[in-house]
Amino acid sequence: MSAFTLGLNTYVVPFSMHVENRDRLVKGMKEAGVSTGTILLRGGTASERDDTDHENLFRQESYFHYLFGVREPGFWGSIDISTGDATLYCPRLPEEYAVWMGKISTCLEFKIKYEVQTVKYSDNLESSLRTSVKPIFVNKGKNSDSGSTYNPPVLDVLKEVDCDEVKLFPVLCDCRVFKSEKELALMAHVSKLTSLSHVHVMRSVTPGMMEYQLEANFSHFSYYNYGCRNMGYTAICACGPNPAVLHYGHAGAPNDRVIREEDMLLLDMGAEYHCYGSDITCSYPANGKFTERQRKVYEGVLNAQRAVFEICKPGTSWVDCHKAAEKEVIKALIDLKVLREVEGYTLEDMVEMRLGGVFMPHGLGHHIGIDTHDVGGYLEGGKSKEENYPNRLKGAGLKSLRNLRILEEHQCLTVEPGCYFIDYTIDKAIADNDLGKFIDVEVVAEFRGTGGVRLEDVIAITADGFENYTLAPRGIEEVEAVMGGAKWPPMKDVHPELMRKELLNM
Amino acid sequence: MSAFTLGLNTYVVPFSMHVENRDRLVKGMKEAGVSTGTILLRGGTASERDDTDHENLFRQESYFHYLFGVREPGFWGSIDISTGDATLYCPRLPEEYAVWMGKISTCLEFKIKYEVQTVKYSDNLESSLRTSVKPIFVNKGKNSDSGSTYNPPVLDVLKEVDCDEVKLFPVLCDCRVFKSEKELALMAHVSKLTSLSHVHVMRSVTPGMMEYQLEANFSHFSYYNYGCRNMGYTAICACGPNPAVLHYGHAGAPNDRVIREEDMLLLDMGAEYHCYGSDITCSYPANGKFTERQRKVYEGVLNAQRAVFEICKPGTSWVDCHKAAEKEVIKALIDLKVLREVEGYTLEDMVEMRLGGVFMPHGLGHHIGIDTHDVGGYLEGGKSKEENYPNRLKGAGLKSLRNLRILEEHQCLTVEPGCYFIDYTIDKAIADNDLGKFIDVEVVAEFRGTGGVRLEDVIAITADGFENYTLAPRGIEEVEAVMGGAKWPPMKDVHPELMRKELLNM
Ligand SMILES: [Mn+2]
Ligand SMILES: [Mn+2]
Predict the structure, then answer these.
(1) Is the pLDDT of residue A382 over 70?
(2) What part of A 293-332 touches B (C-beta under 8 Å)?
(3) Which helix (H) or strand (E) segment is B31 a member of?
(4) Measured at the alpha carbon of residue B181, what is the angle toward residues B178 and B186, in degrees to the nearest 5?
(5) Which residues surround ligand 1, an ion (CB under 5 A)?
(6) Which Enzyme Commission number(s) are on file for it (chains A, B) (predicted)?
(7) Which of A497, B182, B324, B500 could form a disulfide with B307, with the two C-beta atoms 3.0–4.6 Å apart?
(8) A484 domain-assigned
């Protein structure tokens, strides 16, 4: 049995995980009425920066990784639908490759390593496809997060034979939405190590440090101890006003502010292992002690998580989860007198008027897996019920939802409510005929420049609820204790409502 | 005066460095007979992974960085040749950018930040170019390391007006070959911090660790302490047989071997700061003590560096440097009895027969700067003498040279001799009619699987010699002392021949 591991005590991913992924795809195609034919996917290719010979570190394309788990660039893969047999096509490397890149694996070695039925050289691809069972199913469809289209490969043979560009995509996406037990175990592992890396960072914070030093500490901890060479996405290490910049940390805003005593920090970082990533956000005061105001904002966001968790189970609509979170954020802001209650308007009215979108302009969360924003949030033509795949909603917050599906067992999602003080959205709301009356201009002014809070957990939907894979300190007393030097994991789980089932077994 | 720094005590790069780079380009164009016109370059653009919304961390395109130092994606830049005035064109960002990406800088703010005469929005680019001085010079040419072509941008206006694709490229490349004082200071800084990061790693090595943990330690040290978010290239952390794989460390061979007591390590890692990178290789025994054999191979490679350094000054041919290095490697191998002297053949004959290429198949080194393999090694149409730009040579080692130029002041290069035991090249040599007789098949067999040694320094050519920017331990007694816990830098420079001028001032 072959497996992926980076050695020492790093996690062992059996390649049977990818065998199962292929089996599930074949099963899905059969359920969609396709009993014969050949599925064809192209793996990612090596790339260089601009016109130079600077080689970008290769990371496998996500669909291909899902089905084959291949680490090297330049492969192709096919699956015979009726037999389920898989073939990999590897590049035929020149002898000199051994000098520069390392030992050249034989086809037999790849066959054993990747647990497929056949391995051939990719220069045989077109001739093999000519004799393979038709039609050939290739992947084509729109990624609802990027808006970009996954395009099928261009090959002469595909113009000559019966080729289907429609049926594969929805089935393959839906397979990725519903994680297998082995995938869930891997997601749990990567979320656990991401949680522990956050704890490491939390303990290293001192006012006077730079934001990017927290990024350095996180990625070192997760690589050195757990073999995570890549982060799932660019680290957001925001202090002071920066938490109000939702995608802070990019090259134009590269985590380069000094952390001050009075700052709240918002750290959104996730490690990746064998191309499966986590996505966890922790927020806490730089000096380890919450002020009264920081506490109220934080508790509002934590209550938003709790409100979601209360209804988080198969059958619940993700939109309802989003609104449940917004309601708690609005309640906290009323308590802080940033928002005022207005006669004739209930809390539900405030939610429906999209007041939550002023302070939380993003969606509640997203599918997560091989991509941070994993596929299938708005899938056309999937096997599930029609109502699972509606069009995007309108209105602040709702329009940013990356997923509108009904929750089902084996989905893996982030739950990431937040409360931010963003001049642009606040000013727009104050000037708004409907929303302006709810906002206390003077009180909100005191919160401007203080950033915001986000708490982001990775969860998996179970048969009767969910499990929280995020095992980070969440309660205020937990955060303050850990920052003060206390042991983590704790001796006792004082927040069972957060469903951190493995917390005490870490 | 504007500057780039990542805060705290990280290095401060004045933007006048880029102003000078532009001035030198304009001067170069005038020397090439061009007195009027407009230079146009396109900056790098943001990119996402495959069809997903996973944003790759933006790193500026190298030519654009050289001239403008802009950190954000999506810019264009132009320079009026007669006045030398520079214009930047920045993207006009939607208001909502402020919510997701951060405060939107005004044109005035960019003008001050990047020390240019004018900043406009890029939606004005084409109309501005219509009224700018003609011809418009765009960059087009072949990168001699990758073989790829830098292609000029495609714009309607460029089809309508007088546009020159020939004259800019050789002048711009030649500007990059000869570093300014400010560029040299930055190269010295990044090589110093890279040296110190190597020392940090050297002290952290223990048998039983994984190779990738050394990569983790290096990148953490250089990011945490010096603000280097990117490495110049993928880290090569090779132990056991792996040093014989010249580009080890890529995704297919990801530094995943356990380090053993008896291993030699070869660590080729360089940090990057403000897009200027270093490239340093250290080799040493995992347990901190050289065996007699390890010592002899190592001393041979160090002697190769010394032989190069003896002749390293303006006027020397890089090919002669390469051969001088090979000669020392061959001498060491004769001493080790891997090679035997054959009657009728001098040492010089052995060099000319390309015996060195068996054990050092790569070139001696390369220009270095904004790209690790910096431009200009084989430049057609440059301003310097014709003999500076010959065609590639033939034969093992020589054909891999990335540069055939005569050394001149202000060039910045790596000197990286090595001696590797590579089955493929050794077997080929044994079977070769000319080379086979020099190789002792039984002795060389004892070295198979032991990897090899590379020592790589970054140097700058001065008026009468060179300065070595690499301030790492090099002498065997230095390496053993540091691995045993001794202070670095040392109290005394016992190897003045290595020209580590700033060693004691670190
Ligand atoms: Mn997220
Ligand atoms: Mn190099």
Answers:
(1) no
(2) none
(3) helix B16-31
(4) 95
(5) A 279, 414
(6) 3.4.13.9
(7) B324
(8) yes
Q: What is the pLDDT of residues A285-308, one digit of tens each?
A: 999 999 999 999 999 999 999 999
Residue of B nearest to A218 (CA): B220
Place of tokens 């992974």: B49
Q: Do A371 and B150 touch (CB under 8 A)?
A: no
Number of domains making up chain A: 2
CA distances from A275 to A377, B180, B204 (A): 20, 42, 28
In this structure, the answer to whether residues A198 and A159 fall within a common structural domain is no
Name which of B96, B102, B373 is nearest A253 (Cβ-Cβ): B102
Q: Which residues pair with B317 in a beta bridge?
A: B406
Q: Which residues of chain B have pLDDT under 70?
A: 381-390
Q: At residue B80, what are phi and psi to the nearest 5 degrees? A: -80, 120
Residues B278 and B383 in one domain: yes
Interface membership of A66 toward B (CB under 8 Å): no
Are A340 and A388 in the same domain?
yes
DSSP B169: H
In this prediction the ipTM stands at 0.96
Q: A223 in a domain, yes or no?
A: no
Joined together, the tokens standing for residue B89 give 């064109």
* Among the listed residues A110, A78, A90, the one whose alpha carbon sits nearest the alpha carbon of residue A2: A110
Three-state DSSP class for B33?
coil
What integer pLDDT is reported at residue A216 of this predicted model?
Answer: 98
Query: What is the tens place of the pLDDT at every residue in A400-426?
Result: 999 988 999 999 999 999 999 999 999
- Residue-wise pLDDT for B250-263, tens only, equals 999 999 999 999 99
The answer to whether the beta carbons of residues A412 and A458 sit under 8 Å apart is yes
Q: Which domain holds residue B483?
A: 181-505
Q: How far is CA A260 from CA A246, A483, B423, in A?
A: 20, 16, 57
